[in-house]
Amino acid sequence: MSADLPVIRLRPKSKPQAIRHGFPWVFADEAVVDRRTRAIPPGSFAALEDAERRPMGVVTVNPNSKIIARMMDPDPAAVIDRDWIAARLARALALRERLFDAPFYRLVHAEADGLPGTVIDRFGDAAVIQPNAAWAERMVPEIAEALRAVTGVSTVILNGQGRARGLEGLDERMEILSGGVEAPVPVPMNGATYLADLLGGQKTGLFYDQRPNHAFAQRLARGARVLDVFSHVGGFGLAALAGGAAQATCVDGSAPALALAQGGARAMGAEDRLATRQGDAFAQMEALAEEGARFDLVICDPPAFAPSKPALEAGLRAYERVARLAAPLVAPGGYLVLCSCSHAADLTAFRSASARGIGRGGRRMQLLHTGQAGPDHPTLPQLAETGYLKALFFRLDG
C-alpha cells in the first residue's frame, strides 16, 4: 500500500465482505468520518481498510457525497494513473469489438467497466466522456489521452451535465477536448440511421442502451402503423421503419430532437413514412385518442420518472398513467411496449404499474418479452443500479 495515500477506515459494524465480494461503494455512514477524512479533497485517492486495519484496496473519496468512497482497484498497491486508465479502457474496448462490427457503442459503463462514475459513448471517430464522479472530473486530461491512445478516436468531447454530477457537487460544463464536430453524426444501428447531436443533444447525443429492444420491436413492426412516444431522435420509430413499418409517428416535446428524427428518416430514404408531433407526450396521447387514432404498435420510452427512492411512488403513478393513456391507442391484437430507465423502480414494481395502467385503459394483455439494456451496458450483480433499463412487450386484446 502506498504510504502517500490517506486512509479511509470502515466502521466496526459495516460489512467489509460485501466490498471484498465486488460491491463498489462505501456510504458515508459506513466509514469513520473525522476531521482528516473531511479534509480530503474530492476526487482524491485513499487506502481503504476494514475496522481491523486490514487493507482492502484503493478507493476514490468524495467527503461531500453520500457515496464517500468508490472502489478503484482491490490491489492496495495500485497506482491510478494514465496507464491504469488505459488498461481499463483496453479491456472495455476488447469486449465491444467482440460484440459489434462498427465502432458505435457505449465504451465504458461506469462501475461495471471498472471506471466508477464514468460513462464514455463512442460515435465512430468521436467519443463523449461523462465524468460523473469527482475523480474522473479531476483526471479528464488523463482519461482523454488514454482514450485517444487506446481507441484511435480524434474527437473527444466532455459532456458534464446531468443529475449525477450534482450529487457529486460538480458543476455543469461542456467542452471539446480535441478534434471537432461540425454536424450531427450519423449512427447506423439495427439497419436504421440515427443523427446524434454530440454537443446539444440529451445525454451524450444518443441512447445506445435500447439497441436490443429496438431490434425486438422491429419484429413486430413489419407492415405496421407505429407510434413512438417520448421518441427523442426517433429511437423506436426509425428502427420500426428500418424493419418494414408502413408508417411511424414520433411524439416528443423537443423540436430539435424531432428534426434529428426527420433527418435520420431522410438518410434512410424513409422520410415519406415518418410523421412527427411536438408537444407534451401525455397531452398528445389524449389528443390522439380523441381523434380516434389507432396503431398496430405503440412504444412509450419516457425519461426516468423515478430517478431516486423518494420519487418512487410518484414515478410509478406516472408509469401507470403512461400505460393507461397508451393502451386505448393500440388496435385490437396490436402491441404495446412500455419502458423505464428508473433504477429506483425495479422490474416487479414497474411491471405492476404497467399492468394496472393497461387494465385501467380497458385492455387485456399478454406479456410477450422483457428486455433490458444491451451488452455494451454491462451490469454488476452486486449493484442493482447498473440494471436500470426495463422494456415490457405486451400484446393487447379487447
Task: Give an overview of the whole structure.
Helices cover 30% and strands 29% of the residues. The chain folds into three domains: 7-73, Archaeosine Trna-guanine Transglycosylase, Chain: A, domain 4; 82-178, Transcription Regulator spoIIAA; 185-396, Vaccinia Virus protein VP39 (Rossmann fold). The model has no long low-confidence stretch (mean pLDDT 95). It contains twelve helices and 19 strands. Strand 11 (185-189) and strand 12 (192-196) form a beta hairpin. The chain has helices at 16-20, 35-38, 82-99, 134-138, 140-151, 163-167, 211-221, 235-242, 255-268, 281-290, 312-326, 347-360, and strands spanning 7-9, 25-27, 44-49, 55-61, 67-73, 104-109, 118-123, 126-131, 155-160, 173-178, 185-189, 192-196, 225-229, 247-252, 274-278, 295-300, 330-340, 364-371, 390-397. With 398 residues, it is an alpha/beta fold. The strands form four sheets. The chain has a seven-stranded mixed β-sheet with strand order 15-14-13-16-17-19-18, sandwiched between helices. Strands 1-3-4-5-2 form a five-stranded mixed β-sheet.
